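Fold this sequence, please.
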Amino acid sequence: MTSLAPLLVMLASAAAQPDVYFITIDTIRADRLGFYGFEFNTSPNLDALAEKSRVFDNAVCEVPLTAPSFGAMLSSRYPRLTGMTRNGIRMPEHVPLVQERFQDAGYETICIQSNWTLKKDLSALDRGFDHYDDTFKQRRWIFFTSERDADDVTDLALDAIANRDPDKPLFAWIHYSDPHAPYHSHRKFPVARGFENPDRRTEKVNRRYASEIAFTDDQIGRVLDVIPKDNAYVVFVGDHGESLYEHDYLGHGRHVYQPGMHIPLFIHGPGIEPGRDARDVRGIDIGPTLLALAGLQTTDTMLGRDINGLWTQDLRPRVVETYG
């Protein structure tokens, strides 16, 4: 019996490892979500979870482009250090990624993708995932296959979660892209008030953008309903924001104004004290934070901080990047 004790302890430890869900939305402005003060009902499901979460009020992305931003989060390195500075540039093979650490620790790793910039042939961010679904062929723009809608993302995510290996903890990255331009109105999610503007162009894009968020939130709610309540963490974050004609600019990527750089972020799970956190957080902190939730160590290449740690506000410098 004595010789079996270490094995039993090891099995008990593995069984206790929490699931970690990394839920992300493309092109999502923090100030269009209820838990950041938006007065219209665009995000009831996220708002409800945020009420029970640690909400970070001052998080910025490293660069306002999708693949470089997520590359920085998952490597915990600046885009200028990995060379992944624009969409279409692959993450170098020698750069360790968060999902590889989860995989090495015995986690099942799955990802449901929805944005063309994150396809594995373009980004190489599939490294470390047992299952990386980027098979979408829907045309959002006329000229190339771009993304899949939120309902399709959720259907695939629910199927992957239902068919997970029950003997392994799970790391799941689920990415939604609907608020990305061109914005669409959803009949079931109209946002008709609050955007009156003499510039009809500005009014229209704001209403459509808000409708996209409401549709996405509804689909995220379906995923939240199946996440275990007792031994799972949810990290919700956006890759970057969006300018809706502020500074005479529509879109993201070329400027580093606040609408494009400020990203929503909250963490929910056992031991996470709900409330607001005003500390300076940046994109490279996401990777170490995800690992710490599972009790895993970062690599010596990772530059960010575990934002659940006890570091104090220390006038931390934050440098954001953009490339022509």
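Residues 5-14 have pLDDT under 50 and may be disordered. The first strand starts at residue 19 and ends at 25.
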